[in-house]
# Entry
Amino acid sequence: EVQLVESGGGLVQPGGSLRLSCAASGFTFSSYSMNWVRQAPGKGLEWVSYISSSSSTIYYADSVKGRFTISRDNAKNSLYLQMNSLRDEDTAVYYCARSWAVNGDYDYWGQGTLVTVSS
Amino acid sequence: SYELTQPLSVSVALGQTARITCGGNNIGSKNVHWYQQKPGQAPVLVIYRDSNRPSGIPERFSGSNSGNTATLTISRAQAGDEADYYCQVWDSSTAVFGGGTKLTVL
# Structure
């Protein structure tokens, strides 16, 4: 059974940093691309970042470019999102999601982890 | 940047057919994916690449895509289909989601 489990969310002050993790199991992690998608309270889905299976290709949404860094460790079946210079508008539930390719669908999602940026 | 436009809400009578549209410039040339999200839950893929259903998704869910509009069709709507629905495409190194449509089953 495919499982994606996010962790690392919490309350952080504006300007602070946080590192999210996504632990994958039930599939060959190194064969799949991965993504982070977020959802602000009461709002819609917003794509955040993409990383290819080998980490050779990485994309970011303009709203996080230069502040967030996506990475993965295929030996540990884990995906990460390093979030720096956090702003109030980064408050959201952050989901990791699996995809076959850069323009592929997101066929499995984690349950999400809540990040709250507030003083 | 590319934009996807969805109606804020759609209502359908129990057992009838609901259609949720997703508008975008020449969206017919792109692969459109659809997700269902119920309150407090993660999104679930219901249609991929315009009209394909993942395993476990009822045949009542179907999709089409042509010109400037993609459509998610839910036949014989059930109370359990009440949810938010999002379309999604990939454009210029960016994944784009529609704003979401709240489906109400009356």
Notes: The beta strands of chain B are 9-12, 18-23, 33-37, 44-47, 61-66, 69-74, 83-91, 94-97, 101-105. The mean pLDDT of chain B is 97. Chain B touches chain A through 25 residues (CB under 8 Å).
